[in-house]
Design a protein that fits this description.
Low-confidence stretches of chain A: none
Strand content of chain A: 15-25%
Helix content of chain A: 40-55%
CATH superfamily of the largest domain in chain A: Aldehyde Dehydrogenase, Chain A, domain 1
Number of helices of chain A: 15
Largest sheet of chain A: 7 strands, parallel
Oligomer: homodimer
Radius of gyration of chain A: 24 Å
Amino acid sequence: MEVIKKAQLAKIACKEWVKLSNSERDHALITMADNIEENSLKIIEANQKDIEKAKEKGISGAMLDRLTLTKERIASMAQGIREISSLPSPLGETIHGKVTNQGLQIYQVRVPLGVVGIIYEARPNVTADAAALCLKSGNAVVLRGGSEAIHSNKMIARLLRDALQKLNLPFDVVQLIEDTDRCQVQQMMRLNGLIDVLIPRGGTGLIKSVIENATVPVIETGAGNCHIYVDYPVDLNEAIKIIENAKLQRPGVCNAVETVLVHEDIASQLLPDLKKRLEERVELRGCEKVRKIIDVAEATEDDWETEYLDLILAIKIVSSLQEAIAHIEKYSTNHSEAILTNDLNNARRFVKEIDSAAVYVNASTRFTDGSEFGMGAEIGISTQKLHARGPMGLTALTSTKFVIYGDNSVRR
Amino acid sequence: MEVIKKAQLAKIACKEWVKLSNSERDHALITMADNIEENSLKIIEANQKDIEKAKEKGISGAMLDRLTLTKERIASMAQGIREISSLPSPLGETIHGKVTNQGLQIYQVRVPLGVVGIIYEARPNVTADAAALCLKSGNAVVLRGGSEAIHSNKMIARLLRDALQKLNLPFDVVQLIEDTDRCQVQQMMRLNGLIDVLIPRGGTGLIKSVIENATVPVIETGAGNCHIYVDYPVDLNEAIKIIENAKLQRPGVCNAVETVLVHEDIASQLLPDLKKRLEERVELRGCEKVRKIIDVAEATEDDWETEYLDLILAIKIVSSLQEAIAHIEKYSTNHSEAILTNDLNNARRFVKEIDSAAVYVNASTRFTDGSEFGMGAEIGISTQKLHARGPMGLTALTSTKFVIYGDNSVRR
């Protein structure tokens, strides 16, 4: 199997890669970025093949756009790698250190995970982006992109590996699975001992399949059925501005708001203005109580459960903070939720009781993002509780080990 | 299914449990400890049934001993709970906090995982121990012990729950699966959404089965094929003392040494003395080069791979630090390894290149333990790289969430 062979090569190469100094790794990343940018015509040529195939299959619109690479997009891909190279390295950081009661000197030190497997869908820029993040944090990477982008991915991976080879570095730290047959990905999910962690990036179906089938540890990324609760008292104009931002600034992404919960005491003031502001661009769906105040389509059980990723917004009136929290507990994917309020107790209670990766007070859910949080770049947003939660920067791609110095110490 | 019903109850109860203050939880733990100790006769009575059944099955020796509860062991079980209650709570700790470039105030705060599933084998004291650790860190626990200890486990779990009920607290945070049929544990491994993490504690077979079958995130604990490498120059007497400690202080546990690697330049000095010191209590097995120096049984490929957990020690002569590292890379389970040396460069290289949870310089591998590391208590020793690595204390039973305060902030 291609995937086994390549994971083995990655495993061997990562042992050399971790021995380099941070500046050697950073220099390698810059060389990779240059090689990408200098060969953008080759990438565009390969990308053209993917686009033709996609068009034959009838793919169009947003999906075709995500697949398409232009000179500008390739330049920004290269720039992304350069920015990752300039971030501080997480490796070697001592996160705890002390002398134990027995006199042992003990350090908990950040180390790479080893080999990171990334399974992703259409966007070919993930190939460069994920590779750079993994390499910067001292890992090797096994990439498995979607078949739609295979020609682009192959060219990008080749250019990344060529740059490493030019520098006489272990280029096997970058592996792309070229066989797009499903059996490769099935095998990849079960390569315990060769792959240390799997990160699926893509739609719900992909992520579910990885969770169902993987025996390798997985970091679940993803789905965001995000809520904003408008409490009372609140600044109505600001509330509308935040809802508009959370829905419209980029509706197709996981941190966009999908359901707005409104306290009954301000519903009759808020809803008409909200409708006026959004109705031309957003389809509004409301619960029965909402529809007594504004004329919108009916929201059903399905709406509360759905991550639209689209210009649709569900609205529900609740009679208390408690009811809002209960609704969120029931329907949220625990990604990002916000309360808009001027009541300190309610803000504190919302923050304490809402069990989501990011909990906001008086801010848009759209901020849940590695670069907004100051991490520099992100490999994804974890919606699980193990290992990493929320936007994952370079430290999420590391583990730790304990280093212990004794004075010929034995245990009593 | 019993396990689904009980996991649901735990999920609901943990939402109440997390709202309590740390001192309310600590008080609950002390009440649980008292209830265990006051009812030790009831526990002994239940334990008697398990022992009789075990004897009927022909179980004896170490296994029977592990199953047996005495008044003293129950007192120490209760004392263990009290000690856990007196540890500082990890909850609410802010592990990062800053103001972002956009002016958002952002905190990364420690929160409970939610519902922790523990799958374990014979020892009934795990029931009290694991429950106390999970509850202290704000979680609910679903316990699934071995059928051999079912009567003891049922009584202990009942007493823990009774103590909570007496205090009018959500006693459903402690759940024991009483149906010992395998289908319960199969179901438990796939309760995504109800169980947040599974920790298997037991033999290799149990752990492997959980990794193979679970869709819930797992923390792998366990197997320790630990190595000591005796470098040159080294203090021979101290080296022998450390090897003796690592093999003999408690041979049946995961951090005991199984293979000693000896640099060829000191083998002829070290091995005769080592043999003299160990041969009466330990069966020694050596590679060909070892057997030219001392008369011991032959070590085969199997020996390098085996975690004996017994009074057996494999010995191999290596010609360099590099060969020692390569041997460890090939055969280690990445639990604990030690170098004994007085060469600073070699010590640093060993620490850097050995990819194990605990890497020692001039100390016994036996120190890999939560209480030796100053964590107070441990829920297990993780041999995986995700989430937690090495001894796991209370913080390993937590996750984090991001709490973000804005000033009606929207993303640009």
